[in-house]
Design a protein that fits this description.
Oligomer: single chain
Shape: globular
CATH class of the largest domain: Alpha Beta
Strand content: 15-25%
Bound molecules: N-(iminomethyl)-L-glutamic acid, fe (iii) ion
CATH superfamily of the largest domain: Metal-dependent hydrolases
Structural class: alpha/beta
Largest sheet: 8 strands, mixed
């Protein structure tokens, strides 16, 4: 987790941050509608609790030293603040926790708009991958890019994420598929977390695809991941999580479990890309290895859903991928009704979802997956934090948590998902630092 005094908040991509920064103390006052998503200390919300947003009318939030120290109705605020204490008046506005985007691949080089055009003509994601496009085409671009180039583009993205209300983001490796490039990616991700005003969580996904040089030798590549990459990444502490793309033509359930168990030995918590294109049983593997989250789940069946519920694995749903690839939606209602904690994330990447707008993901979740606006907000905040094992410090507006808040130009939080495709966020507060969007 980024600490305010440990980061230079004017990194290479930070045009937004070239403005004067208000200090880490801030009294956010006269908030017309405050959405706290408070959980009273619970790690996640499940079932009906996902609809409880902990609303407070005419509210205030006191941020001291980058941390929330008080939350409540204005009329109950008693503390005497010095005359020069920075204040932000939020009358007529809604304030929410900053979004936690718990699944992205936003460090990449090159774009894939040609594939987008091919899909518009009927080609599928798998057909494009089999013809040499897809993940491995981004891999060759990332292998030839320098760390500096990768960081420059991603810093710009991070800056724009803040404008769209995201204050914590997970970024995966997985476009290297050889030791040097995976390490280059992870170093870049870690450095961005120190240099930019954003909490950046690194995930190692060496098992994202099989590189061309191992096409006929899956076992050899799995060996490389297990015996060379994981020990190196683990020893250097470059990643908090280890992830695998468990899919036909990529890594099967058995290889997935082996890789994730090895990652765990080296201190990386398991995550899975599960049951996205085919129902391979990734959800069951997630439960078996004690994964923090199982993501995608478009094809997850009843057995997988029951296994996730029993094991308390967070279902990381990615509405933007289903929308962008037009390949069907994850069974969000079934998951919520079965008691699985549901998070939503963008999966921002050049192939399957070229967007990092969390409000847009919420709109798709509501219209296509029949989640309620309340569930969508919980999924994009507290439950996203849980998918990153961060709910003790992020995901809700409660004393003791990081002062990560967003100010939306509206009096009712439902406007956020309802009035879609535009940006309603006018201010983002990251660890108490106020940014005008
Ligand atoms: O989560 N499914 C695998 N990985 C990414 C896609 C990455 C890409 O196409 O570049 C995903 O959808
Ligand atoms: Fe992904």
């Amino acid at each position: 987790m980024l600490l305010p005094d440990a980061c230079s908040i004017r990194g290479p991509g930070s045009a937004l941050l070239d403005q004067p920064l208000v200090p880490l103390d801030l009294f956010v006052k006269n908030i017309t509608q405050l959405v706290t998503v408070s959980s009273g200390g619970d790690r996640v919300k499940t079932g009906p609790a996902m609809s409880e947003l902990g609303l407070v009318d005419d509210a205030g939030v006191l941020c001291e030293g980058g941390t929330i120290s008080w939350v409540g109705p204005m009329k109950e605020f008693r503390k005497k603040l010095p005359d020069d204490f920075p204040e932000l008046d939020c009358s007529g506005k809604t304030v929410l926790p900053g979004f936690v985007d718990s699944h992205t691949h936003m460090l990449f080089a090159g774009t894939r708009e040609k594939e987008f055009a091919l899909r518009a003509k009927g080609a599928t994601y798998q057909e494009i991958a089999e013809a040499g496009g897809g993940i491995v085409s981004t891999v060759s671009n990332v292998r030839s890019a320098t760390k500096k180039e990768l960081k420059k583009q991603t810093a710009r993205f991070l800056n724009d994420l803040l404008r769209h209300g995201t204050t914590t983001v997970e970024i995966k490796s997985g476009y290297g598929l050889d030791l040097d490039t995976e390490v280059k990616m992870l170093e870049a991700i870690n450095e961005l977390g120190k240099e930019e005003l954003m909490s950046v969580i690194p995930t190692f996904i060496g098992a994202h695809a099989i590189p061309a040089e191992y096409r006929q030798n899956l076992a050899g590549y799995v060996d490389l991941v297990i015996n060379t990459m994981i020990p190196y990444v683990g020893r250097k502490k470059l990643a908090a999580f280890c992830d695998v793309f468990c899919e036909e033509g990529y890594f099967g359930p058995e290889e997935t479990a082996r890789i994730l168990r090895e990652g765990k030995k080296w201190g990386m918590e398991p995550k899975i890309h599960a049951d996205e294109l085919t129902p391979l049983g990734g959800a069951e593997v997630a439960a078996e290895v004690g994964a923090v989250s199982a993501d995608h789940l478009e094809r997850a069946g009843d057995k997988g859903i029951a296994a996730l519920a029993r094991a308390g694995v967070v279902a990381g749903l990615l509405p933007g991928v289903s929308f962008f690839l037009n390949h069907g939606y994850a069974p969000a209602r079934k998951l919520i009704d079965a008691g699985v904690p549901v998070a939503i994330a963008s999966d921002f990447n050049p192939g399957s979802c070229m967007s990092y707008s969390m409000p847009m993901m919420m709109t798709i979740a509501c219209t296509q997956m029949k989640m309620t606006p309340e569930e969508a907000i919980t999924a994009a905040t507290l439950n996203g934090a849980a998918a990153l094992s961060l709910s003790s410090s992020a995901g809700s507006i409660e004393p003791g948590k990081s002062a990560d808040l967003i100010v939306a130009e509206m009096k009712d939080y439902r406007m956020l998902a309802y009035h879609f495709g535009v940006n309603h966020i006018t201010k983002t507060i990251k660890q108490g630092v106020l940014l005008e969007v």
